[in-house]
Amino acid sequence: MRARISALCGAALLIVAFAPGAAIAQIQGPPPVQLTAEDEAKLEPIAPELRAGARMALGFSKMMGTINEKMVLESRKRGGGPPVPPRHADVPVTEQMIPGPNGGPQVKLFVINAKPGTSRPGIVHTHGGGYILGTAATDVRRLQEMARELDAVIVSVEYRLAPETTFEGSIEDNYAGLRWMVANAATLGLDRSRIAVTGESAGGGHAALLAITARDRGEIPIAFQALVYPMLDDRTGGAVKMPAHIATVGWSGSENQYGWKAFLGQEPGTDTVPARAVPARTPSLAGLPPAFIQVGGVDLFVSEDIDYARRLNEAGVPTELQVIPGAYHGFDQLSADSPQAKQFTRAKIEALRRAFARPAG
C-alpha cells in the first residue's frame, strides 16, 4: 500500500509529506473531504479507470491547500515525511555517506542490489517532490523490484532540497552520486559502459540535468535516460498557460511556479534564469544519451515533455515518447492497479532492458 503513495507531486505529494497517517487510512477509501459538483467536473478529463485515485488526490488537495514555502518549512521542522515502505528481504540495500561536492555536506546514497564480482548495468535514481519535498528512502522498495527485474545495481541519491539549497547544490549532489558509483564499480558489480539515469517528476528533471551535466563535463558516459513525467520547464504554469482540461488534478501551475522559484533561487520564467538549471532552456541537446520519456495526457507537464522529446529527436538523440491518454500526474502510484499504470510501468522497464542490451558505443 505505501509503495503506491511514495514519490508523487501535487495532491499526492501533499498526502505523503503532510499527512502520512491519513494517507494510509484513506488510500482505498473515499476522499477525506466531500467533493462538490465543481470538483467532480475536474475528473471528467481523466480516464475512467484512473478516477478513483484522482478523486482521493483531489480530496486531499482540498484538505491540505496549495503547497507553499511556509508549509514546506514547517514540515521540515516537524521532521515529517513520506511513509517508507518495508524493504524486500531478497535484494540487498545499504546506506552510504559520501563526501559532499565542493566541501559541502555529505551526501546519502541508497545502494541497491550490489553484487561484487559481476558486471551488470547500473542506474542512478533521483526522487520526485517538486524540487522541494520527497526523500529517496520512500522509493527503495520500488527500486529493489526494478533492480531485481533488470539484474542491475541502483544508486538513489538523497540530494539536498530547495529552498534551503538551490539548483547548484542538488545538481552537484547527484553528480557526486554518479561519480561515486563509477569509482566503486568493482564493489558494486557495475559495467561502467551501461549506466542509465532515471527519476520521476522533479526527479525526472534532475535525471535530465544529470545527463546534461555528464555530457558537458565529459568524464562519465551515460548510456540512457528514462524520464518519468519529468519537470523540465520553469515557464509552465506561469508564462506558459495550459488548456483548461490539463492538470485539473495533481500538481498545479501555481505549485509548479513555487517549486521552480525555490529551486532557482529567483523568479521563474524570466530571461535571467540560468539555462544550466532548466533542461528545457538548454541551448543544445545534441550528444545526450538516448531517451525514454513518458507522461500522462492531462499531466501539467505533458506539453513540456512532448516538446523536450521533439527537441531531443531533432538533435539526433534517439528518443521514445509515451503519452497515456487521460492520465494525471502521479497516476501510476495512486492508480497502480489500473491497466494504464501497469502498461506505463512495464514500458519503462522494457525501455531500460533494451537500452542495456545494446552494444556499448
From TrEMBL:
SUPFAM superfamilies: alpha/beta-Hydrolases. The keyword Signal applies. Keywords: Hydrolase, Signal. Residues 1-25 form the signal peptide. InterPro entries: AB_hydrolase_3 (IPR013094), AB_hydrolase_fold (IPR029058), GDXG_lipolytic_enzyme (IPR050300). Residues 123-331 form the Alpha/beta hydrolase fold-3 domain. GO terms for molecular function: hydrolase activity. PANTHER family: AB HYDROLASE SUPERFAMILY PROTEIN C4A8.06C, ALPHA_BETA HYDROLASE FOLD-3 DOMAIN-CONTAINING PROTEIN-RELATED. This is Alpha/beta hydrolase. It comes from Sphingomonas suaedae.
